[in-house]
Design brief:
This protein is α+β, with helices and mostly antiparallel strands and about 270 residues long. About 25% of the residues lie in helices and about 20% in strands.
């Protein structure tokens, strides 16, 4: 923080800089400015106090979102996964009509979920408020928990290119594999990629503006690509990018050409 100071012994204003520690400087917006005065080292200091809050949600119908939310204290959801998955299916069923959402991928883990979807009506905030409330009610009623079901706020990240969409899609579907629950993505039951058909899989649709253009139409190659390990550095970058309002991984990209899904991810920079 920078303040402007005036010394009674001088007719000049001087600049005094204070170092303020902040965990996530990129996620700060200035929502309030407060002017105050104090005395420091013989200087009369006029300073500006900054109140920090989360950035506004980007509402759009042009790009999909990657959304993730974790249970309170990272505890398990405390209900059988089959019952829990059924709650999500029922709430999605209602939200498809109520909010006109388009689901592209969903994976339910023991203590969090990953969702990729589009909002043609630019209403991701309204959808999430309802979705989080209703799923929390359903899980809480079954588990008889009186505490919050979800821990903190959800994270939303815009996937603004086919490269980022493909990177994030693979990261989402490989969550159960990374956790050691299964060996292949299609073996995980509580996912829209599961080989065991579920109602939610029938709700899947493609993004309207070609974000899945690198994926291709060959289902076998698609599954094999998903089952190919991601580079650890790529994975770490994706995880960080998922917590930003706009998903961006500078170090890695997919080919601009039609992706050979059985191949390695190219490592060319993203413009």
């Amino acid at each position: 923080m920078t303040a402007w100071a005036y010394s009674p012994k001088s007719t000049n204003w001087v600049t005094v800089t204070f170092r303020v520690r902040c965990a996530s400087p990129r996620n700060i917006k200035l929502s309030n400015l407060t002017l105050f005065t104090l005395t420091w080292g013989g200087l009369g200091i006029a300073a500006v106090c900054l109140t920090m809050s989360r950035p506004p949600v980007i509402l759009t119908d042009q790009h999909p979102y990657h959304i993730t939310a974790r249970s309170n204290n990272r505890d398990w959801f405390d209900v059988p996964m089959s019952y829990c998955f059924g709650i999500y299916i029922n709430v999605f069923d209602e939200c498809l009509t109520r909010f006109n959402i388009k689901i592209h991928a969903f994976v339910l883990m023991n203590n969090h979920f990953h969702l990729i979807l589009s909002t043609p009506d630019k209403n991701v905030s309204a959808f999430l408020k309802y979705f989080m409330t209703e799923t929390s009610k359903g899980i809480g009623k079954k588990s008889q928990r009186i505490n919050h079901i979800y821990g903190g706020r959800n994270h939303k990240s815009l996937l603004v290119s086919p490269e980022y969409y493909a990177l994030c899609l693979k990261y989402v579907y490989r969550n159960p594999v990374k956790a050691g629950i299964c060996e292949r993505v299609e073996d995980y039951r509580w996912s829209t990629i599961s080989k065991k058909h579920n109602k939610l899989s029938a709700y899947l649709s493609s993004p309207r503006f070609g974000h899945d253009s690198l994926i291709g139409d060959n289902k076998f190659e698609y599954i094999e690509w998903l089952n190919k390990n991601q580079n650890a550095e790529v994975e770490a970058n994706i995880q960080r990018a998922s917590r930003s309002p706009i998903f961006k991984v500078k170090e890695y990209s997919l080919s601009k050409k039609r992706l050979d899904l059985a191949g390695e991810l190219p490592t060319r920079g993203v413009p």
